[in-house]
Amino acid sequence: MSGFAAGPGTEKVPSFADYTKERSKDSSRAFTYFMLGASGAVLTSAAQSSVHGFLTNMAASADVLAMAKTEVDLATIPVGKTVTIKWRGKPVFVKHRTQEEIDDANSVNLKSLPDPQDDASRVQMPEWLVVVGICTHLGCVPTTDSGDYGGWYCPCHGSHYDVSGRIRKGPAPLNMEIPDYAIEGDKMTIG
Q1: What is the pTM assigned to this prediction?
Q2: Considering only CA atoms, which of 163, 155, 154 is closest in space to residue 136?
Q3: Which residues are marked as active site?
Q4: How many CA atoms lie within 13 A of 19 on its CB side?
Q5: How far apart are CA 130 and CA 92, in angstroms?
């Protein structure tokens, strides 16, 4: 026969009254609030440290920040010529337009354009046009001073842009993009 009893009335629950200490409700509540506050402070500190570490890791490196802006010396670009520079890994066309090109760009009937924009809204100074040199159809790089309108021509699919970077003919749906830039004297800053 084993030393274990079975059946009704044989279970015994031990009393732990000798091992518990007498506490008032106020001291128990104060301890609970203290533990909640301390846990909250530790959790907040850990969250702040994690977010700071994540943002520091995601910040742009020095070489990326160096490419964010590009300066161009406008005095070196003769009238009627286009210079291609690299900005953020993309080609940017800086065109020093002649008065004839400016007049041609201003004389275009806007209703005939697939993406109507007047020339004045695309330039800060009429003689300087700055566009991102990427075709808006499929991202090719158009050739300079070519096409039916004397601006750019994308040989991949036949898009023609005028001297204001506006799409005139072909499958491209939009005009060439104008980047943020500022002109101060003979210096232009792109970006």
Answers
A1: 0.65
A2: 154
A3: 157
A4: 3
A5: 7
